[in-house]
Amino acid sequence: MNLTGYADPMVVKAGGHVDFMISGEQGEAQIDLVRLIHGDTGKAGPGFVEEVVSSALPSTCRVHPQRTRCGSFARVPGSRTWLGNLDCGTAYAFVQPTRPGRGAQAILGCIDHAGHSGFEFGIGPDGCLQFQWGQNGAIQTVRQEVPLIAHCWYFVAVCWDAKGGGIELHQFEAINPCNSRIGTVVGFDLNQSSVFSFKVDPGPSRHDLIIAASPDRDDWATHLFDGKIDRPGLATCALSFAELMLLSQGANPDHGQLLVHWDTTIGYTDQGIGDVIHDIGPNRLDAIGINRPVRGMAGWNWDGTADSFRLDPSQYGGIAFHSDALIDCQWQPSTSLDLPPSLRSGAYALRVRQDGQEDHIPFIVSPSEPGARTAVLLSSFTYLAYANECLPIGSEIMTGVPLVVTARETQARAERAHGLSTYDSHVDGAGVCFSSWRRPIRNMRPYFRMEHLGTAWAFPADLSLIWWLESEGMDYDVISDHDLDALGQAALAPYEAVITSTHPEYYSARMLDGMEAYIREGGKLMYLGGNGFYWVTEVRPSEPWCIEIRRLNTGIRAWEGKCGEGYLVTTGQKGGLWRDRGRPPQKMVGVGFTTEGMDKSQPFERLSDSFDPDVAWIFDGIADDALIGDFGLGLGGASGLEMDRYDLALGTPPHTRLLCASFGHSDAYPLVPEDIMIMAPGYGGTQNPLVRADITYFTTALGGAVFSAGSIAWSQALPVNGGDNTVATMTRNVLKAFTGAAKTATAQGQRDFA
Amino acid sequence: MKWPSEIRDRNIEYVGLFVDRLRQKLAHTLDDNVVQRYSAHLAEQQDEGLDRLLHFFGTWPFEGKLALLRDGDDPASFHLIRLLSCTGRFETVESDGPYSTEIEGFVDIFRRRVADLRQQATAEVLS
User: CA A227 to CA A427: how far, in whole Å?
Assistant: First the structure.
């Protein structure tokens, strides 16, 4: 039993309340509130550093094993009342199964597996359409002989009449040139209709109906369905073949015969759609999605003429269900903490110890009131995007060195017990577009190192910046992406300077708007990261724990959304890259994503702009020929991992100074695909001059300024040699100038705009 | 705030430095047999070192790049030309050729480019 847990909320203001959900062996666990100062245990840095903070927490709390149950489905509250003794009826749906033949999967189910009452309409273990029902412990199963084909749309139905009639199972393929994996040219015969007789009378279920699963013994769900379901329903009589044919062609069901008909195309607005699946039948038995069934999916009738539910919702009745989806573990709180309003902002963790095991359950505290000149903006959206990333570890081709694994990480990857990241794909190959903090996140731990990199990433890497600010005695507040998303510019406005984390990759429209307004109106930004402001990412304001992204057909992407499925249901906006929506990062911070690689980082070298007297203050204490960052915890240099470049054509402000750039990257660093129009040899770092990181600086009309380091590895170089190094010197020079400790930045800005 | 009266693309400085370093690196890979190796395997996949060299030559700007002008159909002759722009405008290089086959022309262009590379790399070191 691994000791682990999560904090809810993961981002909170001082003065707020946090619940800690812990799973461990039954018994007591020792708990402490700690402030995290440094995580990366690389030898060149300060190692793991934490500070115990006195709090109202007890010294121990009771913990017990807590179970995580994955899978998305939809419950239909109150439906058992209406199901009654359904002696005759019809269940139907359009379905696109993605894993037929991988165990029983329910399309509609209310069967009581203990007592065998109720029914389940779905797919049998062999991939064939199946209907199963029971009463008083007796169970009968009927099944087609022609298996359903993965990723193809069908209309499926079962009609039954226990009073003299029989059971009919029907499957009619609903493939058009666009909607399925295979097209129409061959004309495979996938249809089948079969008739069976009753041996067991159907009995009433004690459970409510579930879409895409059946009730489990512990009031959860089993026989989880992988694939899409579109416009399912139940009629109160056995429909005729002619009536079924009409339904299969998209006709509306006869209202007089309906028990329930979920019109999955209803509810879309320009702001997306929620988790309620609307019943247009007489009983209004709306279904509620659990673990975020994916909406905005192309339906059975998607014909390629619409690229969004906003253009034609009638083509977007598809709801994708995944047996391994997880939004909320729903664990019981093990302990809670009311944070004092005076608590210093920062990266915190509940340190939990039990029987020789230790875990840090992280959370971010922003100040109850802004109190410092500088804010560090921690990338809580990025942390969620990467949460529990399980990409295949065979990435030696990127790192150039053999893999170094740990038993615990290998076990976690194999189990996938706490859900996936937005870098992963579900078991059926569909990309994961939601990620939440309501689950343990094993790679958001202070000491976590990415296995295929052997280096810290995101949250633990960002602690290097925290350590350096602490060691410098700088006055700073910590805020998070979630603060910026909720408050926009107001989250940043109180601060003279804002420092980003190493990898602010995931940004919402509100965050971009807020950041741009902050800079435009005189704020000073230190973008000390790489591949920032890249993917369109949104949360529902009332559900900040869950981000949504859609990876589209450009950018370095771990998966690619299916045709027509690129719009976020969270807000109705188009997903993909901000660059594809006219907002390349260069416009805001001077640099934007150009390459990523994982073998070795390189130093920066000074370019001619760095010798301009107007920016000499940035280089105080740095020799003209100094290599800047030929060291670092991020693969040994300050320029590495993911890097950005200056590019006038992508919107770098024309007066931007290109102060430094890196040289000598290997071919493990290729140019990003969004920059490649025609494939040719030579896009690797040894041959392509766009493969580099740039350090830039520009000023804005109202006294603002942006210093960009353009590399994830920059801040991971700060702690080397106790913080006495060229990267730290430059960072210190800029921060002091930006926060009024030195006046040089403003004077230079005035010259720019005279 | 005034729009800058003159916009300097700082990327040009970086690209210049990058190409200078790449040229130096490639110049060190040249040996006396490079032209012979090139011509011997012209119809085949070149070795990795030559492949990189050829890619480097391929990235040279259109302006001033050597190419061949095909004259006549069968038999054709091939004249050495120097491109003046990316649209294909050119001037004839009279000092050499014409060649009776494309292959002869390719080898001569390669020989000239290797010589240019050596010369530029040496000049950079001296400067």
Answer: 10
Q: Which residues of B touch A694 (CB under 8 A)?
A: 14
Mark A627-642 as b/e (b = at least 16 C-beta within 10 Å): bbbbbbbbbbbbbbbb
Positive or negative torsion for Cα A57, A58, A59, A62: negative
CB pair distance less than 8 Å for B11 and A648 = yes
Interface contact A682-B22, CB threshold 8 A: no
Say whether A738 sits in a helix, a strand or coil.
Answer: helix
Q: Does A234 touch chain B (CB under 8 A)?
A: no
Q: Give me the pLDDT at residue A80, please.
A: 86
**Cβ-Cβ contacts under 8 Å for A6 (sequence gap 6 or more):** A20, A21, A329, A331, A361, A437, A438, A439, A440, A441
Helix (H) or strand (E) holding A19: strand A17-23
The per-residue pLDDT of chain A, averaged, comes to: 94
Residue A72's Cβ-side half-sphere holds a number of Cα atoms within 13 Å equal to: 25
Interface check for A655 against chain B (CB to CB < 8 A): the answer is yes
Residue A472 parent element (H or E): helix A459-472
Each residue of A151-186: pLDDT tens digit?
999 999 999 998 888 999 999 999 999 999 999 999
Is the per-residue pLDDT at A344 higher than 90?
A: yes
Q: Which residues contact A715 (CB under 8 A, 6 or more apart)?
A: A461, A462, A464, A465, A468, A501, A502, A528, A529, A709
Distance from A353 to chain B by nearest Cα, in Å?
52
What dihedral angle (degrees, nearest 10) is formed by the CA atoms of A515, A517, A521, A525? 10
- On whether any CB of chain B is under 8 Å from the CB of A197, the answer is no
Strands A154-161 and A657-662: unpaired
What mean pLDDT do residues B72-91 have? 90
- Confirm or reject contact between A647 and chain B (CB < 8 A): yes
The string of pLDDT tens digits covering residues A404-424 is 788 888 888 888 899 999 999
pLDDT of residue A753: 44
DSSP chain B: -PPPSS---THHHHHHHHHHHHHHHHHHH--TTHHHHHHHTTTSPPPHHHHHHHHHHHTS-STT-EEEEEESSSS-EEEEEEE-STT--EEE-TTS--BSSHHHHHHHHHHHHHHHHHHHHHHHHH-
Q: Is the pLDDT of residue A741 over 70?
A: no
Asked if residue A277 lies in contact with residue A319, where contact means CB atoms within 8 angstroms, the answer is yes
Top residue of B2, B5, B6, B10 to mutate, by most chain A CBs within 10 Å, is: B10
Report chain B residues whose CB lies below 8 A from the CB of A682.
Answer: 55, 58-59
Question: Is A404 within 8 Å of chain B by CB?
Answer: no
Helix or strand run (H / E) with residue A36: strand A27-38
Interface contact flag, B9 A607, Cβ < 8 Å = no
Residue located via tokens 């190409």: B19
Statement: residue A87 has pLDDT above 90: no
Q: Are A92 and A232 in contact (CB under 8 A)?
A: yes
Percentage, residues of chain A above pLDDT 70: 97
Q: Which residues from chain A sit within 8 angstroms of residue B7, using beta carbons?
A: 648, 654
CB A658 to CB B11 under 8 A? yes
What is the ipTM, given to two decimal places?
Answer: 0.92
Tokens 């890619």 locate to B55
Q: Please give, rounded to a whole number of angstroms, the shortest distance from the CA of B43 to a CA of chain A.
A: 18
Give per-residue pLDDT as tens, A599-653: 999 999 999 999 999 999 999 999 999 999 999 999 999 999 999 999 999 999 9
pLDDT at A638: 98
Averaged pLDDT for residues A720-731: 98
Q: Which residue of A607, A648, A654 is in closest CB contact with B14? A: A607
More confident residue, A379 or A393: A379
* pLDDT given for residue A720 in this prediction: 98
